[in-house]
Amino acid sequence: MVERYDLATKSWKAVAPLATPHETHAVAVLDGKLYAVGGKNDDDGHLSSVEQYDPATNAWEAVALLPSARNYHAVAALDGQLYAVGGRSNGASLSSVERYDPALNAWEAVAPMAVERSRPGVAVLDGKLYALGGNDDDGYFLSSVERYDPVTNAWEEVAPMAAARAAVGVAVLDGKLYALGGENEDEADEEDEGVISRTVERYDPATNAWEEVAPMVTARHSPCVAVL
Fold first, then answer.
1. For domain 2-213, is the CATH number 2.60.40.10?
2. CB distance 227 to 176 below 8 Å
3. What pLDDT does residue 111 have?
4. Distant-in-sequence, close-in-space partners of 206: CB < 8 Å, separation ≥ 6
5. Residue 36 scores a pLDDT above 70
6. Euclidean distance between CA atoms 144 and 163, whole angstroms
7. Nearest by Cα to 168 from 124, 222, 113
8. pLDDT at 210
């Protein structure tokens, strides 16, 4: 199921559904089209399928498959290409990153991250791709942040978030990066489960520093975030 919000009428409308049911997939917009990438289906199988939605025709079409089926990953568009970052496959967290070129309708592997990350947050700022937090292969919550430069095809570590967390929402606003909510570690929980967070942090690339800003009213796990 897919629904679209109209700002003029302040109402939602159903549009063409996906061909394949998805959960724990990732979405991004590239060249005026919406992509739904990977995830898992009702049988709990990992998906390599990728669907592309064209709002002009209100139709989805299948495009090239991910080389590595994955879920709990994140996707972002950078320089006319789509990046699938981290996630899980075959019971393991991934450090791998794959890039889609719509002109070639093909995926290729690029430099992996230094750390395996499932449920990371990703965003593009100043022509570079950021991967925030997530869970490592042992399930621990991460505060570390890595930045990818497509020119050098290399990742570098930047300042970590103050709060380690996974399933964090990420957005860019006025040249700064925001990390919203997610799940973070509860030291009092003997089962090593997390707690849902209201925390919001803001990253300034000019100073390579995070600062905490006003928290959300409601704690949110795996929030979807957009700037309008």
1. no
2. no
3. 98
4. none
5. yes
6. 9
7. 222
8. 98
Residue with tokens 């505060």: 143
pLDDT at 44: 63
Mean pLDDT (whole number) for 179-183: 96
pLDDT tier for residue 190 given thresholds of 50, 70 and 90 = very low
Closest to 19 (Cα-Cα) out of 36, 6, 33, 7: 36
Q: What distance in Å separates the CA atoms of residue 128 and residue 145, rounded to the nearest whole number?
A: 13
Judged by phi (left if over 0) then psi (alpha if -120 to 50, else beta), residue 127 lies in left
Residues whose CB falls within 8 Å of the CB of residue 201, separated by 6 or more in sequence, listed in order? 161, 162, 163, 178, 179, 210, 211, 212, 213
- Reading the block at residue 123, the tokens are 């965003």
Tokens of 136: 């490592």
Q: Cβ distance 166 to 141 under 8 Å?
A: yes
Q: From residue 145, how far is each of 8, 111, 161, 185 by CA, in Å?
A: 38, 16, 7, 17
Domain residue ranges in the chain? 2-213
173: confidence class by pLDDT, cuts 50, 70, 90: very high
